[in-house]
Amino acid sequence: MNEPLELEVGSVAAGGACVARAPDGRVVFVRHALPGERVRALVTETTKSYLRADAIEVLEASPDRVEPPCPYARPGRCGGCDWQHVALPRQRLLKAALVEEQLRRLAGLTRDIVVEAVPGDVEGLRWRTRVQFAVDRAGRAGLHRHRSHDLEPVDACLIATEDVEAVGAELLTWPGAKAVEVTASGAQRVVHVSGRIADVPEVEAGLVVNDQPRRVPHGVRHHVLGRSYEVSAGGFWQVHPGAATVLAAAVLEGLDAQPGDRVVDLYAGVGLFAALLGDRVGPTGSVLALEGDPRACADAARNTADQPQVRVRTVAVDAGTVSGRVGRPSLLVLDPPRAGAGVEVARAIVGLAPRRVVYVACDPATFARDLKVFLDAGWELGSLRAFDLFPMTEHVELVAMLHRPESAV
Ligand SMILES: C[S@@+](CC[C@H](N)C(=O)[O-])C[C@H]1O[C@@H](n2cnc3c(N)ncnc32)[C@H](O)[C@@H]1O
Prior knowledge:
The chain has an eight-stranded mixed sheet, sandwiched between helices. A seven-stranded mixed sheet has the order 9-8-7-10-11-12-13, with no helix packed on it. The protein has a five-stranded mixed sheet with strand order 1-4-5-3-2, with no helix packed on it. The protein folds into three domains: 1-64, CATH 2.40.50.140; 66-124 and 240-409, Vaccinia Virus protein VP39 (Rossmann fold), CATH 3.40.50; 130-218, no CATH class. It is built from eight helices and 22 strands. It is α/β, with parallel strands linked by helices. Strand 16, helix 4 and strand 17 form a beta-alpha-beta unit. Bound molecules: S-adenosylmethionine (SAM). Residues 236-238, 267-269, 272-273, 291-293, 296, 316-317, 335, 337 line the site of S-adenosylmethionine.
């Protein structure tokens, strides 16, 4: 099977690989390639209907091909980045094409997308403020290979921030550990180790072992648009250093909350949007933040402790919660995980009839599926912004403003 195939590479597909045709007509998803290239590719996976392959030799290169800055971003090696071989402006065009395609296919909507760089971007590198390393039997920390549990030991990660790298987790030994997560906000750093580890190596950072605090700090602090947020180790926070500010500003702009508004914040995390919206709606308004993770809720309650108008509830967001437990909000923001809110939750939101909804999405396909529910109910898509929060990968973040036809934009 492993005679390399010579392939003409076509457009990019969800997942970051490009589409080609094998000599027998089957679709091939080719990694490490670019549209328009001719490559020799090694098959890495075969199914009845398609193949996966890695381009191992480029016969005709795209003008947008660059030398990957990271030595581990190679066929068969680290699976963390999809597009280190692609010039940054072209990465953003590929992401825009993927979003446009999902909107067309799943929501029946034609929209031109521009993917915006995040302020503070450094050539698409040094942006991960949180990295989870897997650990092998020998105690070495590394990153997973593409679609594999196999570990690629690395001595550095070029997309991690300098502050994360200062811990040097990749150069230490973690015997018995399953995973080591390093989080940094500036020089404030926390290492969160999980697994059966007896001897934790010396690190210049706070330490949490299997959720048990061992050494301060146990979390990090972030500052966004004049507010301060505490995030415990293992809690959710946007990973790119510029992400929280750019997303919060887009959410505030999209919702345009006024004093007295009643806002619901679904999948609220540690209260990033809830706290800022609390300031906008003031003491005559209200913000109800729903979040499923008790640890994030504890952080959110602390982060909004000065705002009696903000309430935080630990609850799983589902159609029942949305229909029955949030009252009649005038505005709603949701920021679900990759699976999206789902059709039932989207229908429940439509049923609440808020003036505006802002949907923050990290997966264009699940977003487009949910968007269709709003469009079918007569809602309109106002602004749709796309941010390059995850350079070198195929991922992109969307902030969409939706409104009922009779509501002002
Ligand atoms: C993408 S994060 C967004 C957090 C926050 N908006 C932010 O930007 O920092 C998604 C959050 O949803 C929470 N979550 C996931 N599924 C959930 C569910 N079914 N119900 C409630 N919260 C959920 C996760 O714990 C996580 O905090």
